[in-house]
Amino acid sequence: GGGGGGAKKTIGTQFKDELNSLMGTLSATHPHYIRCIKPNSEKKPSLFDNKLVTDQLRFSGMLDTIRIRQAGFPVRFDYPGFCRRFHALSTSMRRSLPSSSDAVADAKAVPGALLKAHGGPGELWRLGLTKAFLKEKLEGVLGDANDACRRKAVHVIWRYYRTFKQRQWYKRTQLAAVNLQRTMRMYACKQVYDRQHRAATKLGNVLRGCAIRNYYEYQVASSIRLQLCVRKFSSRRRANKLHNAVLLIQATWRMCRQKRSYNKRRHFAILLQSAARGRIQRQKIMPELALRMKALAEDESRMPVEEQQRRQKLREEEAAKAAALAASIAAEEEKKKMDEEAVKKAEEDAEKKVREEERDRERQEKSAAEKNEAEAILLEQSLPLCL
Questions:
Q1: pTM for this one?
Q2: What is the SS3 assignment for 126?
Q3: Which is it for the CA torsion 228, 230, 233, 235, positive or negative?
Q4: What is the pLDDT of residue 32?
Q5: In which element (H, E) is residue 221 found?
């Protein structure tokens, strides 16, 4: 057999290990036990059976536990916790007590004084080494007194806060009144200053107006002379520009017309050459074709009747195709002729339109030149008057 492994755990050993693990978990925590009460026997929600619940509390000992807790001191505080819970009372009481060198006695002095002041001789409270024991009634009395002390402190704080806000409002009002008085005095002084300033400004404007008016009249005379020269130069330059544009348009139109005429003559020359070459080729081919047709006729005379009929039929079909082709060629030539006539008519219309535009442009240039000459004459006549 193989080598022996570790010993198997028995049921007792496994239960012991689980129990030790559970006890270790419980020791490391602080468990709280909750007692559950069954509200009804029907297992329905929102149904509470008073008798069943009372019997469960009585038989489980909860009522006796509550009675014992009420007879004893259920409320327990350590001394620092007591001072934190009733902080307002503890603070006021600590101020009234004399200080001591013993820290334990000093920690017990404040709770003891508070309990004597609010709980009587000692029926409702007890003091231990580290804790104070109270009944619930005394805790309620101390809580009400602590809340009353806090409310009193809140009222004092609110009173000081309102005093502070009223003082701030008074200071703002006083500052606003001072600013208003200063503004009114400034406004009165400013009105006096404005009247004096307007008088001085008006006098200066009159003097400067006289000087500027003289200078302006001199500038107007100079500007009129300059405008006359500039208008003459701009009119001459515009007329030259229009003349150059007209020459360019005329040259372009003549070039297009010559180009269309050249293309037309070239097309007609190509057609004439094609017709002449076709005629020469037909003259060369006709004798050969006549010999070939004669040979075919001799061959057909020797052929059977059926073969002759078939060849006659083929010739008729070829003749029909040739007639259709000739008709289509004639239609294309007619269409081409019509297109050429339409193009020719469009060219004539364009040429007529260009001539009309040239006449309109010449009239506009002439009227603009006459207008410029009239303006120049008026300026020359008005210049001595301005000077």
A1: 0.32
A2: strand
A3: negative
A4: 72
A5: helix 136-302
